[in-house]
Write a structure and sequence with these properties.
By secondary structure, the chain is mainly β. Helices cover 12% and strands 48% of the residues. The protein contains three helices and 15 strands. A twelve-stranded antiparallel β-barrel has the order 4-5-6-7-8-9-10-11-12-13-14-15. A two-stranded antiparallel ribbon has the order 1-2. Strand 12 and strand 13 (248-257) form a beta hairpin. The protein is globular and about 60 Å long.
Length: 302
């Protein structure tokens, strides 16, 4: 078991190390004077000018549809951490890693200029310091979605999505956890440094061992993202209200870009609440983790 889990961890680190090869998206921008799309050869030196989109809506949609179809969806990270609400031991300290990707299936030629896409996220909790180093829980989250750009006065201000999702931990018996939900979400850019994301879901909890999951997961989240002017610091705060007044799951992350030439970040993640892991969704957790993270493009509409 020890050999298997260590091999799994090594493979995950290898996968994360290759993410920059296909996650770094060349930035494109419109030359408002020439009304043409030009490629930036060194995207790490420039940032997109969302307020420079002074072209027609069809041209803007065409430009957005030309962006890479495949990329990072949520943060892809490998971290290790300790609890803040209990004694630190080999049993309570652990590792956590996540891989998350998305693939656009169509361009915006579906009805009402919608496009179709797939997402897949996998989050794992690894008792790396325990005897035999078992993987405690792995949460799988595939989804099929339809998105639409939000354009006002020929300027991109965000996007909205509707998605069918499933989440489970792949176990059976008493350890089985699963649910399905229809989610509606949106992403809005306030300026080049700040955007916000909201997500609401209508669930169908089919797991026999987690019928009360929504008491701990709630019915939605809201988050805010800040990127510093030099693009080195990325700070995110996420709130997930759950049942009961004042009960909120809170996630706060800080990323510092290792190099301007990549999207790899030194990463710190603070979590306070319940439901972070499907297996132990009822347990209260407060922990802090550090590691490395591959982030999506801050200006991506996803």
């Amino acid at each position: 078991m020890r050999r298997y889990t260590k091999l799994t961890g090594a493979l995950c680190l290898l996968v994360l190390s290759f993410f920059p090869a296909f996650a770094q998206e060349d930035l494109l921008y419109f030359n408002s004077e020439a009304d043409s799309v030009q490629e930036v050869k060194k995207p790490h030196r420039l940032r997109p000018r969302l307020d420079q989109f002074e072209v027609s809506e069809p041209d803007l949609i065409k430009y957005l549809d030309q962006q890479p179809a495949f990329g990072v969806f949520k943060d892809a990270f490998f971290t290790t951490g300790i609890p803040l609400n209990q004694r630190i031991t080999n049993e309570t300290a652990d590792a956590m890693f996540q891989v998350s990707i998305r693939q656009r299936l169509t361009k915006s030629y579906l009805p009402f200029n919608f496009f179709a896409y797939l997402t897949f996220s996998q989050k794992a909790f690894w008792d790396i310091y325990s005897e035999s180093s078992p993987l405690r829980d792995i949460n799988f989250n595939p989804g099929l979605g339809f998105g639409k750009y939000i354009i006002k006065d020929n300027k991109l201000i965000g996007a909205t999505f509707i998605q069918i999702e499933h989440e489970s931990n792949g176990k059976d018996g008493e350890d089985s956890r699963s649910w399905n939900y229809l989610s509606v979400s949106g992403k809005f850019f306030f300026n080049r440094n700040f955007n916000t994301i909201f997500k609401l879901w209508a669930p169908y909890v089919d797991g026999g061992e987690n019928k009360d999951l929504l008491r701990y997961r709630g019915i939605g989240t809201v988050s805010a993202n800040f990127l510093s002017n030099n693009t080195l610091w990325w700070i995110t705060g996420e709130l997930n209200p759950r049942k009961g007044f004042g009960n909120v799951n809170t996630t706060f992350t800080v990323g510092y870009k290792i190099s301007n030439r990549s999207n790899q970040y030194l990463y710190t993640r603070f979590y306070n609440g319940r439901g972070d892991s499907l297996l132990n969704y009822k347990e209260y957790e407060m922990n802090i983790r550090i590691g490395i993270c591959i982030k999506p493009d801050f200006y991506s509409v996803y």
